[in-house]
Amino acid sequence: TPLTQSFFALRMNERKKMTNKNHQSHLFTSPFLVSFLFRILNSFLFLRTFHSADEHYQSVEIAHEFIFKYGAKTWEWREDVKLRSFVHPLLAYAWPYALVKGLRLDEDASLITGVLVRAMPRVVNAAQCAFIDVGTYRLARKWYNNDQNVAKKAFALSLASHWHFYCGCRSFANVTETAFCVWALVFWPSGYFDMNAKKRGGGSNSGKSSNSSGFRRKSIRGLVLAFVSCTVRPTAYAFWACVGARTIFFDREALSAKRRARFSADAFWVGSLVLSIEACVNYYYYNKKWTFPAWNFFEFNVLREGASQYGTHSNAWVFTQGLPVVLGVLFPVSLYELFLASNARGNLEDTSSANLPDGGKIIKDNDGTNAKRRKRLSTPAVAKVAFLATVFIVSIPKHKEFRFLYPLIPVSIAASAKSWAWLESEPPDKKSSKNNSKNTTFLLARWFVRLGLAAQIPLAMYLSLIHQRGMETIVNKYVSKLTVEDDVFDGGVHFWTPCHEHPFYASVHKNLTMRYLECDPPNASSVSSHLSSGNWRAFEKNPLAFVERKYGKSSGLKCDDDDVNDVNDDADEDAKTSDDEANNLLPSHVVVFQRERDILWNWFQSFQFEEIANEFHAHLSVDRPGQERAHFFARRKKTPRNTTGGGESQRSECASSSKVV
């Protein structure tokens, strides 16, 4: 009867809704749970090395200083520079620190507080990297028409990425930026496979309202995430300008004129809202002074090329070093898939009705938009634009780093998953003798990818557990155990290392007196940090002359006129710190690399320093020779200030005639 038919139809619709709901929940929760547990192990058990100063001094150190009122703020965060936005430390690390502080643990539980402070960033970093893994999985589903085989391959490739394993669980703004970018691409209105423009534009009246509202909600989510990524790292502005321009001006087949106009209007109000919130955050952080750090960042790095002091690279660096290092075996695979692969490939891309779901009918997307598209696996143009945009952005400045390429890693992995799924299928025309050469090439390509992926495992382990581990070991194993009452005195703990190549207060969580050598660009700031023990350039030029002038002359040693002149050449740079009497107190502990240890060995012995740690750091020199081992010295007894402490008595006789004032 009609009543019975209506009843069964209603039951079937309810069952489909429940199935889709459970399926969507499973697609998110199951991969995320697997990835999060894997990244927790990655972060806590398999990450013991140092990569770059920014993983400490542009994130956790800033949040630690903001919440606990002591920590390190490098020159980028000074009020006369304002090169960084506070959004990243606030979103990622300030709130976990605030939770720990809110526990109000007493002094007896200070050990627990320290453990929590050091653990919370690792948990956040693991969650961020898990979001990237799951976002890559969802991106592959979106681009390749819900093909579960391709999506699972993308998820596996993300988990197996040596670069994710090495850098994904570090406190870099690049990681947070990438997490927002990949999910913004998931919700982005373009990139759906073989989209039917008429249906996307409104089509028939049935279901038009729900389809339109669902599409717009997802688009707004993508816009919010895209603009938040810009507040985390300003280079994302150029990335999304390229992707947005492609969507608005060239996606005419996928999006109707009405949809593109509405998307543009949404981009305007979403961007205005997000950037206004960012402005308020920075207004509060920078002592109620309005500022736009993104412009300061652009002016310093692009217009003035201020970052060039940290190293310069050729324009071809991205393809000769950058991409091969961060992508590994997926570098040639992703280039092939993005720019060379044909749209038809064997049984995976056979678009005949026999190989299409439901006998060749147009199928529906199950991610909430009901977008119509066909079963034909070709990489969408938005993936190519996202890849090229990142390459273009990184290639402009002279200073380049591997982590700058992070936003294109999920894009490359999602594209490479399609080729890997194809390579793991049966060779085409296996029984045909005419295709032996093709089959051989197919098998060689398959084993090339397999061996390349297998080689990433020891590489990831080496980078994460061995390479540049010395400074992390010294800070976490020795410095964090020091106490103000019994161990640290006079000038405190000094790090005589290049450009903040060590953890600091966020890894120690004790208000010890600690100082480092500043590495500011010339004329970057006229204000010196109270944590400075001098200027790295002056120290690096002649370590012995530097310490003798500042703290006292080694007994039995003389410094010649050339030493004095070398140090005094940098007097103007170091003058801003020498006025502070506390900066000239002889340290109780010193951390140095092997080169400086060998040069200063007699000086250390003269002032009764004892070497208490000699840790392996790296097999090869990183950015300068003499960094194979890291050393930790402690002064065996307190020395009266009038004999070795700060002030005139600490000045070297050989520098007294031209003393810095």
Write the layout of secondary structure elements.
Blueprint: H1 2-45, H2 54-57, H3 60-68, H4 87-102, H5 110-143, H6 148-160, H7 162-167, H8 173-187, H9 197-200, H10 208-232, H11 236-250, H12 257-285, H13 293-303, H14 317-327, H15 330-339, E1 363-364, E2 372-373, H16 381-395, H17 408-423, H18 436-465, H19 470-477, E3 493-496, H20 505-508, E4 514-518, E5 532-535, H21 536-541, H22 543-551, H23 561-568, H24 571-578, E6 589-593, H25 594-599, H26 601-606, E7 609-616, E8 629-635, H27 641-644
Notes on the structure:
Helices cover 55% and strands 6% of the residues. The chain has 661 residues and is mostly helical. The chain is globular. α1 (2-45) crosses α5 (110-143) and α15 crosses α17 (408-423). The strands form two sheets. A six-stranded mixed beta sheet has the order 5-4-3-6-8-7. α20 (505-508) links the parallel β3 and β4 (514-518).
Features of this protein?
661 residues; mainly alpha; 6-stranded mixed β-sheet; two-stranded antiparallel ribbon; globular
